[in-house]
Amino acid sequence: MWWPVWVQRLAAVIVATVLFGTIYVVAQQLERLGANDAPLRLASQVAAELREGQTTTVDAQPHVDLSRSLAPFVVVEDAQGRASDGSGFLKGSLVSLPTGVLANAAKSGEDNVTWQPASGLRFATVTLRVGDQFVSAGQSLKPSEDRDGTIRLLVGSGWLVSMLVLGGVWFWLYRIRLQLQRRFVEQSPAPHSSE
Q1: Cα atoms in the Cβ-side hemisphere of radius 13 Å centred on 115
Q2: What is the arithmetic mean of pLDDT over 150-156?
Q3: pLDDT tens-digit readout, 99-119
Q4: What region does 62 belong to: left with phi over 0, alpha with psi -120 to 50, or beta?
Q5: From residue 62, how far is each of 13, 158, 183 by CA, in Å?
């Protein structure tokens, strides 16, 4: 008699868990995809200038040390993947994105990846093909990854509160059912004995 109630309760817990899990995944993905916005704006600006034969945006970019700065950077690379101009430096040298990224950009015109040039350094990067050159722009993922802990805490707190509410409702319904059963027993007529 009791198993349907427990099945319903288990289903409610599963549904709530899946719902909060989905909220976390969506929020985390929106945060990660949003990190591509600044690199895409910078790369598209430089690509447009290269098509017109000028690169004033690259020249105006400050020197960005990728091991220390969270600022966006841009790099112009040739068909062989050699950096010819840009603002992103690591260990004193202008960075180049992996040749696989450039190969993908050569095929489709654009490639968006998470790039990790060194341990603890992760960047959202956008690479655009411009003729026989490539424009790669990136931005540190550290702020996004730091916010991931906050998102996890908020979603986890929401899940915990929902479990407490479900538990409270189930306990309240259980108490009501017990009271109704007592009243029913008290109001039932006593059985008559026949002699």
Answers
A1: 26
A2: 93
A3: 899 999 999 999 999 999 999
A4: beta
A5: 52, 42, 80
- Torsion-angle region of 120 (φ positive above 0: left; ψ -120 to 50: alpha; else: beta): left
Task: Tell me how far apart the alpha carbons of residues 165 and 135 are, in angstroms, rounded to a whole number.
Answer: 52
Instruction: Return the sign of the alpha-carbon dihedral for residues 91, 93, 96, 99.
Output: negative
For residue 152, which amino acid is it? Answer: R
Tokens 């306990």 sit at which residue? 171
Return the structure tokens found at 152: 């996890």
Band (pLDDT 50/70/90 cuts) for residue 192 is low
Give the integer Cα–Cα distance in Å for 52 and 34: 28
Residues recorded for the chain: 195
The helix/strand count (H/E) of the chain reads as 5, 8
Residue given tokens 């696989």 in the structure block: 100
User: What are the structure tokens assigned to 143, written together?
Assistant: 């702020």
Q: How far is CA 79 from CA 51, 74, 133, in A?
A: 16, 16, 6
Contact indicator for 43, 130 with CB cutoff of 8 Å: no
